[in-house]
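Bumping with the actual sequence this time:
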Amino acid sequence: MGFTKGFALPRLAEIKAPTLILVGEKDIPDVHAHVGAIQAGIEGARRVVLSGDGHLPYLESPEVFNRIVLEFLAKPAEK
């Protein structure tokens, strides 16, 4: 049972919290496809692609990763 054929994808719309999705530019195509499906399934989800990074952007560019996450967390949720 894969991500798109399992039970997770249809339930993404139940997520109402602000959502940040980070992905490395050089990660494999399957990950980018999953990220696209997750973003499409969660209303208002924000996707950020980290330039030059692969599968571990939090290790590859920790300063950039942390800045993006902290900015997202500091922003008040939109109603």
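The tokens above came from a reply further down the thread. The chain is about 45% helix and 15% strand.
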